[in-house]
Structure formats: C-alpha cells, structure tokens
Amino acid sequence: GRRVIMGRLPGPIKAPLLWGSGTLSAVLLLWMNRSFAWPFAESTGGRVMPDLDIESTGQGLLALKALLETRPEAAELLRSMHLGPDLLLPAVLGLFLILLMRRVAQGASLYGRPAERLLPAMIALPITYVLVDYSENIVSLILFPPSMPLPETASLLAEALAWLTRIKFAALVISGILILRLPFGPRPANSA
What pLDDT, on the 0 to 100 scale, is given for residue 111? Predict the structure, then answer.
C-alpha cells in the first residue's frame, strides 16, 4: 500500500515544489483550525465555520449571519481567516493536488486507458476546487459581518455559499480518490 505510493514519489530534493506545497498546505490547515476554526466554535457555542460545514443550508447560514451580528469577535475570526491563511490555502493545496496527480498518473491506468492521457480532465478537479474555494471565500466575506447585504441579497448569497461549499468538497474528495486510486489500479495493457 504505502510502498506503492512512496515508490512513485521522489524525495524533497528531487521534487521541492511537490513537497513544499504539501507541507505548506498542512501548515495552513493546522493554522486555520487552531487559530480560527476552534476559537470560532468556542465563541459561537459550537458552530462550525461555514467553509467546513458541508451540510449547511441557506437558512442555516442566515441564522449564522444573525448570530455573528451579535458576536463581533466570531465574525472577525471568520473574516481574518479568509484574509489570512485562506488567501493562500486554495492555491497551495490546488498546486499540491495537481503535482501529486501528475506524479501518480505516470504508468497508471484509469478506465482501461493510460492515466496520462486523462490528465487534462483529472487536473480540472483541483482547478475547480481552487476556483470554487476562492468564490466561496468572496461570497462569505460579502455575506457575513461586518458586511451588511440587503435581505434579498443575503438570501441569494447564503444559498450560493451552501452550494459552493458542497462543490468545493466534492472536487477535493474526487481528487483525493483519484490520487489514491491511480497507484493501486491496474496498469495499462501496453505497460507490462
């Protein structure tokens, strides 16, 4: 298992961008959770940051908006996360996923075809993740305090945010499944 994946990955000296983007992604995720998500949950009575809540609904996000209007410290945590580590994470994690996908696709097959031929379609998933994550962040900044959109606009933004979060996680999960599937799947018929 692990040997198959690790056998395909060069060390940090031969692939510094791959290892650097992976390490930086992990550091950014840790920073976001320890410095923003956990304190946000504490200051909102256990609420999850909207970026992490795949089950959120437009109505639930409007309720969170109302709560954040009464808890400026929690609203500031969410805003600071978007204007801090979440400015970098989508691009860095997207780069890591693309580099890792390219690496594990070499010599692998997917649906009976050499995976290298399917790379443009596969790489569209991490690119989709990056674009959707940044869109999600922008919508969040416009929806939640200190921003005060009109009620009709807030309803539309809340619905959009719920869907953007789902699409973001779908792109991430499918990317991860492909990355894990490629090293363990069958080899192309012509690579015996």
Answer: 81
